[in-house]
Write a structure and sequence with these properties.
mainly alpha; two-stranded antiparallel sheet
């Protein structure tokens, strides 16, 4: 239960108390600031508290945004503010700073505004709600009240609520093919008490059923798979819109939303590969290649964004040109479609699944994603080279966490520390060489499953350690994590493909999926502001260089069939390790109550 304290002159006939009860608040009244402070102290410490002026006039949704959004410890609109348990102490101090005596009446006339200004000076961040066309004001006279009521009547807050339930930035297919009706599905779900987590789970189950249909290898199964994949995407859009519509943000929802998209897509790839195998066509290498390419694309996105998250300046002419292009309406949609975001990508996969074969689906996916990756990466390299910005310690820490360096790379980095210059191109060059040396060897050797490959993997680890020996503050240091991901994932793919025994590539697919989950989990923890997974987990998984060495040793020491069994066992162990720790974190009180609002993936 939450408590709302009404403090100020009462207003007869006001619907405010009814609105607050609609939002789930127990309403109490106070005649002055001192009484309000006493009521605040009497509310249990684990409850949310709101302070509202009885003369408030505004939309119900304005109150909802200010008083019920779980993402912010404290929030306010004119005439109303709220404090969650973590901000209760700051609100109590704000009450304590209100002076009493002659000449202070102006400070308590609109008490909520005084408290809001006081909270602004606290360390606890205060979120001021952007109202847009919504109305929230304190009407001090009957004339002001009448004007405010007319302003409220002129704007349909339900229409605003529906419109803002949709992401402000999304792909063309999602914006025009899904959101025009999925928002109404979100409202339908809200009115029936469904939660975003339930819709997210339904989307996952639908995608898994679609993968099962694709695995049948029949034309009817492929058609059903395409239709179900599209419906899964509709539900995927609906869960976020439901969260924004009803402000049901949660730690579990953040975890589900962050991981299920990838689980759905990669499970569908596996279903297509199984279906093709039933028809005598082995496309597991293509399926694994598609997963590797998609994951590396996402790592490029994440690394670049984290490197520039809090850069102190942006003077890039490339960014200026991009801004000018955004001012021309049609170029915005073309540029969003070129990067093949999730809506366009899933629509393409669904249509091609229904009409063609899995092999054609993967060819189209690999070509489209490769072109998109070249386009986005080239643009980001140009921006990085032409901008003048000072990277922060936070950005360097985030890139180091995304690098996923294990004990061996840490040891090498410790010995190499102090050599080289922070901000130079040494780190990305060393990371590139670390991946390139290994990949060239395993790709072009007649028999990469040898002890010489283990030696090359050790040399790759030495270069990887040198890459992270200095803080990653250089212009192109955000390329370090993607280079490491490409080196690890492609090595697994090539060694499994060259083993040339049944089951090797599916086992490698499972192993890369488990490792990729660990990397995605790292990204979303950093995005939530809680930092990377604990170091013990990174060390237990070996880091990227440790896993590469272990896999090359297994390939050299075991027969092809034994190597397949070892890959399967390693995939299971890593999956259990990272999943258990991830679930423990995301259901804990330390996890952030956020919902992904970033660019379409």
């Amino acid at each position: 239960m939450s408590t709302a304290i009404l403090t100020g002159p009462p207003v007869a006939g006001s619907p405010l108390e009814a609105d607050l009860r609609t939002l789930g608040f127990d309403v109490r009244t106070a005649n002055d600031a001192a009484t309000a402070a006493e009521l605040l102290a009497a509310v249990p410490a684990q409850e949310r508290v709101a302070v509202v002026d009885p003369r408030f006039v505004g939309h119900l949704h304005a109150l909802r945004l200010a008083l019920t959004d779980p993402r912010f410890p404290a929030a306010a609109v004119p005439g109303a503010l709220t404090a969650q348990p973590g901000a209760r102490a700051a609100l109590a101090r704000a009450f304590g700073r209100i002076p009493v005596g002659a000449g202070t009446a102006h400070l308590t006339d609109v008490l909520t505004d005084t408290l809001t200004e006081s909270l602004d000076r606290e360390e606890t961040p205060l979120h001021r709600v952007e109202l847009g066309s919504l109305v929230a004001t304190v009407a001090l006279t009957p004339a002001q009240r009448e004007d405010a009521r007319e302003a409220v009547a002129a704007v349909d807050d339900e229409a605003v609520r529906l419109r803002t339930a949709v992401k402000s930035r999304d792909g063309f297919f999602t914006t025009y093919g899904i959101s025009p009706y999925s928002r109404y599905l979100a409202r339908w779900c809200a009115r029936r008490g469904l939660t975003p987590n339930q819709v997210t789970t339904a989307s996952l189950l639908t995608a898994l059923i679609a993968a099962g249909c694709a695995a049948t290898g029949t034309r009817g199964g492929y058609i059903a798979a395409g239709l179900l994949l599209l419906f899964s995407f509709v539900l995927d859009c609906t869960d976020g819109q439901l969260a924004r519509y009803s402000l049901q943000y949660s730690t579990m929802g953040a975890w589900l939303d962050a991981t299920f998209d990838r689980a759905k897509e990669y499970a569908y790839y596996a279903g297509l590969a199984l279906g093709a195998a039933r028809g005598g066509d082995d496309v597991w290498a293509l399926a694994l290649g598609a997963m590797v390419l998609m994951t590396c694309r996402h790592v490029v996105d994440f690394s670049f964004n984290e490197a520039n998250h809090d850069a102190s300046a942006n003077t890039s002419p490339t960014a200026a040109l991009s801004g000018k292009l955004d001012s021309v309406g049609w170029t915005v949609w073309v540029r969003r479609m070129i990067v093949l975001p999730i809506g366009e990508r899933w629509a393409m996969i669904a249509v091609l699944t229904a009409l063609t074969t899995p092999r054609i689906v993967f060819y189209a996916l690999l070509i489209g994603c490769a072109l998109a990756a070249c386009y986005t990466t080239a643009g980001r390299v140009l921006r990085s080279l032409t901008r003048r910005a000072r990277r922060t310690d936070r950005a360097a820490r985030a890139l180091a966490d995304l690098a996923d360096s294990g004990p061996l790379a840490e040891l090498i980095a410790g010995r190499a520390r102090g050599r080289g210059r922070t901000g130079s191109f040494l780190a990305p060059v060393m990371a590139f060489l670390s991946a390139a040396v290994l990949l060239v060897w395993v790709i072009f050797q007649d028999d990469p499953a040898s002890w010489l490959t283990v030696g090359v993997a050790v040399c790759s680890a030495l270069l990887a350690g040198a890459a992270v020996a200095r803080p990653l503050k250089g212009a192109l240091d955000w390329l370090v994590p993607p280079f490491f991901r490409a080196g690890e994932y492609v090595t697994i793919l090539v060694l499994a493909a060259r083993a040339d025994v049944p089951g090797a590539l599916p086992a490698a697919y499972g192993l890369v999926a488990a490792v990729a989950y660990h990397h995605y989990d790292t990204v979303y923890r950093i995005r939530g502001g809680t930092g990377a997974p604990p170091r013990w987990l990174v060390r237990a998984t070996g880091g990227h260089e440790g896993r590469i060495i272990v896999i090359t040793v297994l390939a050299a020491a075991l027969s092809p069939s034994g190597f397949t069994i070892a890959l399967t066992a390693l995939a299971v162990v890593l999956a259990l390790l990272v999943l258990i720790e991830s679930i423990r974190f995301w259901v804990s009180s330390q996890a952030p109550a956020v919902h992904d609002e970033g660019e379409p993936a």
